[in-house]
Hints:
Layout: E1 10-12, H1 19-34, H2 45-51, E2 57-62, E3 65-70, E4 76-80
Antiparallel strand pairs: 1-4, 2-3, 3-4
Amino acid sequence: MQTSLEVPQLVVHQPARDEVEAAQLAALAQLIEAAEPLPDLRDLAPAVRELFPLPAYEVGCGGAHIWLHRAGEEQRLALVW
């Protein structure tokens, strides 16, 4: 877990599969860019889940990261840390 306030960073691991997903990833990038430094990323997870809802996506989190998968795929789509 992060021990100090840190600005969240976004790493996208896969290209968008269509224009809708590209727009979702762009909105996620804007969300991360606008985020204040946080000691714990779990507070940001609900907004990520809103952008990438079930059943199409799986969003998980810990204090130091948020991971995003397309449902049914093992490879991570994106990571916020």
